[in-house]
Amino acid sequence: MLILILGLLLFFVPHSISIVNEPWRNRMVARLGEPRWQSIYSAVALAGFVLIIWGYGLARHNPMVIYTPSSGLRHLSMLLMLPVFTLLIATYAPSRIRDVTQHPMLLATLLWAVAHLLAIGTLHDVILFGSFLLWAAADRLSMVYRVQRPLHGLPASRFNDILAIVAGLALYIAFIAGVHGWLIGVPLVW
């Protein structure tokens, strides 16, 4: 469990700098330059991500059940996951979806975390998904007080909404059909 927690800390520290101290982040970017800042940021976040995967895998060997979700919550979880991939794609495609949600990746992260917390009740899952839920909520709230940096992605097109919806639904179906079990090692159970 310690490796999972260390991974979460390493992953969220760079992702939280703008939340807690945007001026410091901007000074560091000015001092180091954007490419060097992004390299350091990415290296720390990637190390955290690797530790999250490793620590989560280790924690699954000795699960501690905190609560047992009902099958109805699993169905609700699947429903909450329906827009997640569409929102992730919309993050990088200028569209009405992105305009309405303002930061679709954070909304996707919130839905993903809540969906998993509803469906799984082991300690390591609560730590993992609860951490992402708290971080995404804090980041979303902090956006009221800070200037958004532009997101790079697809060029503007009137078809970006359709692209995000179709690709998002295709990914959702693929995950249901077996990608989740293959990639995560946990097959979906309805």
Description of the structure:
- This protein has two domains: 1-62; 63-190, no CATH class.
- Helices cover 75% and strands 0% of the residues.
- It is built from eight helices and no strands.
- The longest helix has 31 residues, at 2-32.
- The model has no long low-confidence stretch (mean pLDDT 91).
Q: Quick summary of this structure?
A:
The chain has 190 residues and is an all-alpha fold. It contains eight helices and no strands.
Kindly provide the radius of gyration, computed on alpha-carbon positions and rounded to a whole number of angstroms.
Answer: 18 Å
Number of strands: 0
**Which structural class fits the helix and strand makeup?**
mainly alpha
What gap, in angstroms, lies between the N and C termini? Answer: 27 Å
Number of domains: 2
* Number of discrete helical segments: 8
Overall spatial form:
globular
Which sheet architecture does the biggest sheet show?
none
Low-confidence runs: none
Q: N-to-C SSE series?
A: HHHHHHHH
- Percentage of β-strand residues: under 5%
Mean pLDDT score: 91
What is the helical fraction, as a range of percent? over 70%
Topology:
Blueprint: H1 2-32, H2 34-59, H3 71-81, H4 84-91, H5 96-101, H6 104-119, H7 123-142, H8 160-184
Helix pairs in contact: 1-2, 1-7, 3-6, 4-6, 4-8, 6-7
